[in-house]
Amino acid sequence: MKTTNWGILGTGKIAGKFIEGLETVKGAKAYAVASRTEEKALEFANQYSVQVAYGSYAEMVNDPLVDVIYIATPNNLHYENTMLCLHAGKAVLCEKPFALNSSQLKEMIALAKAKKVFLMEALWTRFLPTIDKVMGLIASGAIGEPHMIKADFGFKANYSPESRLFDPALGGGSVLDIGIYPLFLSMLLFGKPTAVKSLAINAPTGTDMSTGMLLSHDKGRLSVLASSFAVSLETKAEIVGTEGTITLHRMFHMPTSISLTVNGKTKKVPVKLKGNGYNYEAEEVMRCLAKGQLESEKMPHSFSLDLMEVIDEILK
């Protein structure tokens, strides 16, 4: 099997988690890392046994031995960093949110298609076996006809106007950072909403501190969602059908447990998991690259764009 050399663009906590996931992926190698300073890149490379460290993003992007780049920078840099990689002809897996708005994302997708380069949003939850299991249960009729999704994600964050969570220049706000997970699940299972209502309580910086979202879908389906930096929420998801309920327990966006409730009786649904969860999205990227695909069927450009357009509408 050919080794896939990954370049890691950014040296934050999530970059480290992604490399830990890569360690369980056959044929994957954390080959290079890039930061804005050589010192940070070297420190990260030593910590995670990465072969090459670059003190600029451009240097790594132009390394011919890099096959695909994982972008793990703050939200406000995703567009700029992705465009840099695509212009260099590098395949890209970019952390969520893919961009700050749908206009940026449309440019990213257009360039990827023009350059004939692979591009995918790293919304890792999509690739977890728990999500596949939930979709299988619904398809089998385990809960009858699904009619409602209730999902939230919230934790109490220390307010600071300079924090990436609250600074609008850094792409702050609960919806972009964590509300994207309930929204993703809602749209994956029920499709793009036919109507969107939202109400936000803003932080002093103007970014949303807490947001409630109400989405209607075809077939009379409804999504009741919330995100918050003000309080800790249950961070679980329930898919309610005419015959029962599927629950993705806390923290539902991660590898977690599932239960099925029918006729008042609840049972745990077994799911086999490996690695720390980030391995699954890496495997999907490598599968697509091996087949010469420019996008993933599981996380196509169209889905990411629909998701971003709904976020745009909510943030209005």
Give your account of this protein's structure:
With 316 residues, this protein is α/β, with parallel strands linked by helices. It folds into 2 domains: 4-123, Rossmann fold, CATH 3.40.50; 129-272, Dihydrodipicolinate Reductase, domain 2 (2-Layer Sandwich). Helix content is 34%, strand content 27%. The chain is built from 9 helices and 14 strands. The strands form 2 sheets. The protein has an 8-stranded mixed beta sheet, with helices on one face. Strand 4, helix 4 and strand 5 form a beta-alpha-beta unit. Helix 1 (13-22) packs across helix 8 and helix 4 (78-87) packs parallel to helix 5. The longest helix has 17 residues, at 174-190. The radius of gyration is 20 Å and the shape is globular. The N and C termini lie far apart (48 Å). The relative contact order is 0.16. The mean pLDDT is 98.
Order of helices and strands: EHEHEHEHEHEHEHEEEEEEEHH
| Rounded radius of gyration (Å) | 20 Å
* Backbone structural class: alpha/beta
CATH homologous superfamily (4th level) name of the largest domain: Dihydrodipicolinate Reductase, domain 2
| Amino-to-carboxy terminus distance | 48 Å
Helix fraction by DSSP (H/I, runs of at least 4): 25-40%
pLDDT averaged over residues: 98
Biggest sheet strand order reads 8-9-10-7-11-12-13-14
Sheet having the most strands: 8 strands, mixed
Just name the CATH architecture of the largest domain.
2-Layer Sandwich
- Identify the overall geometry: globular
Number of distinct beta strands: 14
Kindly give the count of domains.
Answer: 2
